[in-house]
Amino acid sequence: MRTRMKLVIGAATTIVALILAAPAQAATAADDQYGAVLGEQSGGGGQVAGVEGVGGLPFTGLDLLLVLGAGTGLVAGGVALRRTARQ
Predict the structure, then answer these.
(1) Could you tell me the pTM of the whole model?
(2) Contacts from 53-56 at CB under 8 Å and sequence distance 24+?
C-alpha cells in the first residue's frame, strides 16, 4: 500500500510540475518572435513617451515562471515524501 501511495504522489507531483512549466515555455517561445539576441536593445535608447517598461529592470533571460514551477514541484515532492516516510 505504501509503495502504491508513493508512486501516486510521485506521479502527481511530476504532472503538476509539467503543467506549471507549460505557460513558461509558451512565454519563452513568444519572446523569440523578433529574432533578436537576448540582452541586446534595438533603437536609440532614449525615453519614449507612452511606452511602458522603459526604465525598468533589464531582461536577463531567466524565466521566473519556470523556476517557480520547479521550486513548487520540489517542495510538494519533499512534503509528500516526508509524510509517507513518517507513517
Answers:
(1) 0.34
(2) none
- Give, as one character, the DSSP assignment of residue 37: P
Q: Is 4 exposed, middle or buried (0-12, 13-18, 19+ CB in 10 A)?
A: exposed
**Residues 46, 67 contacting (CB under 8 angstroms):** no
Give pLDDT tens digits for 17-67: 888 777 766 655 555 555 555 556 555 555 555 455 556 667 777 788 888
> What's the chain's length in residues?
87
CA distance 23 to 63: 11
CB atoms within 10 A of CB 24: 17
Q: What are phi and psi of 57, to 5 degrees?
A: -75, 150
